[in-house]
Design goal:
By secondary structure, the chain is an alpha+beta fold. It has 11 helices and 9 strands. The radius of gyration is 20 Å and the shape is globular.
C-alpha cells in the first residue's frame, strides 16, 4: 500500500481523527471507526482493489433501489481504502443477543427486503450465480472438508459423481427468476436504523460479493445462519410468508431453497475447515455443528436423495452428524 491511511484521511478531510479497530470477518478486509468532533465514519481497508471497486458498484445499485447502503465519502481503490457512512452499532446479531424477543420483528424486516428485491429490475453488470460458479465453489468442500474427514484427498471418480449430482440439481435452480443477491445476507451484516422508515430501516453491510441469481439463496443465508440460531418455527413461517407475498411457485421455490441451502452449507463447511487448517482460525469450527444441522434439513428434501446418498457412501453418516 503506497498511500498511507493518514494521508488518505487527511485528503478526505479527516486529518487528526481518532481510529478504533472494529471486529473483522473471515476475509482479509479490516474495518476502523474514525471519529472527529462527534462525527463518525467507517474506514474499510481491503488489499484487493477489485473488491473495493465491486463494493462501489454494488453501493450505487443499492442506492438506485433506494435501500440503506452506507454513503461513500472517499475512496482510493488502488490502495484499498474506502471511507463510509457510519450506520451505527445496531447489528441484528447484537440486538438479538440483548433482546431475543425482537427476532420476529427484525427478521420480518429482512424478509420484506428480499420480497421487495423480486419487484426490482434485475441489475446489470453483476456476476451471475451460474452452474459453473456453483461447481467451482463446491471445490471448497471437496478440497478441505472431505480430505479432513477421509484423511486423504477425494478420489477423482467420487469428485466426478459429486459434480454430476450438482449439475442435475442446478438444472432445477436455473429455472428460477434472477434477482439481486446480497450473497452474505445474515444477522452480522444487517443493521437496524430505527430513525428511518419502511425498508430504509434495514441497513446493509458487506455486500461486495453481490451477484444476480436465484432468490432462494439469500433467504437460505438469512434463515440458516452459521453464527446464530434462528427459531425453526420462525424460519418456517417466514418461508411461508415469502412464498405467499411473492406468489412464486411453492414447490419450485422450496426445492431451490433446499438445493441452494445445501450448497451454501457445504461451501461454508469447506471454508471453516480451510480457515482452521490453513490459518489456525479454529474459532470457526464451533459453528460447524449448526451448519451440519442446516445441511441435514436441506438433505431431507426428496430431490436431494442422490446427494444424501453420495455423502453417506463417501464420508459415512457420522461426517455430517449434528453434535450440539
Amino acid at each position: 500500500m503506497s498511500r498511507s491511511i493518514d494521508g488518505f484521511l487527511k485528503d478526505a478531510g479527516w486529518f487528526g481523527a481518532t481510529r478504533q479497530k472494529l471486529a473483522g470477518d473471515a476475509s482479509t478486509r479490516s474495518y476502523e471507526r474514525v471519529t472527529r468532533e462527534g462525527e463518525g465514519a467507517i474506514l474499510m481497508i481491503d488489499p484487493d482493489a477489485s473488491s473495493i471497486e465491486a463494493f462501489l458498484k454494488v453501493t450505487e445499485i443499492l442506492h438506485d433501489f433506494s435501500y440503506s447502503a452506507p454513503r461513500v465519502f472517499e475512496f482510493d481503490a488502488a490502495n484499498g481504502l474506502l471511507l463510509l457512512e457510519d450506520l451505527g452499532d445496531d447489528l441484528f446479531a447484537r440486538l438479538l443477543r440483548e433482546n431475543p424477543d425482537r427476532e420476529e420483528e427484525l427478521y420480518r424486516l429482512a424478509v420484506d427486503f428480499l420480497i421487495d428485491l423480486t419487484r426490482q429490475e434485475k441489475p446489470m453488470g453483476l456476476p451471475y450465480f451460474s452452474q459453473s460458479y456453483v461447481l467451482d465453489q463446491n471445490a471448497m468442500f471437496l478440497d478441505w472438508y472431505v480430505p479432513d474427514i477421509l484423511g486423504t484427498p477425494l478420489p477423482n471418480n467420487a469428485r466426478f459423481f459429486f459434480q454430476q449430482i450438482w449439475r442435475s440439481l442446478l438444472e432445477f435452480v436455473e429455472e428460477s427468476p434472477e434477482v439481486f443477491l446480497h450473497r452474505d445476507f445474515h444477522a452480522e451484516n444487517l443493521i437496524y436504523l430505527p430513525e428511518r422508515k419502511g425498508l430504509s430501516q434495514l441497513g446493509l453491510l458487506d455486500y461486495q460479493d453481490a451477484m444476480t441469481g436465484p432468490a432462494a439463496y439469500d433467504l437460505a443465508s438469512l434463515l440458516q445462519d452459521a453464527r446464530r440460531f434462528v427459531s425453526p418455527q420462525l424460519a418456517s413461517n417466514l418461508i411461508d410468508y415469502y412464498i405467499s407475498e411473492t406468489k412464486c411457485d411453492e414447490k419450485a421455490f422450496r426445492r431451490s431453497f433446499a438445493v441452494l441451502g445445501a450448497h451454501r452449507c457445504l461451501r461454508i463447511m469447506g471454508i471453516f475447515t480451510r480457515l482452521a487448517k490453513q490459518q489456525n482460525k479454529n474459532q470457526y469450527t464451533k459453528f460447524m455443528p449448526r451448519m451440519m444441522g442446516h445441511l441435514n434439513v436441506n438433505l431431507a428434501h426428496p430431490d436431494l436423495v442422490a446427494l444424501r446418498h453420495w455423502i453417506k457412501v463417501t464420508l459415512g453418516s457420522s461426517a455430517i452428524e449434528v453434535r450440539l
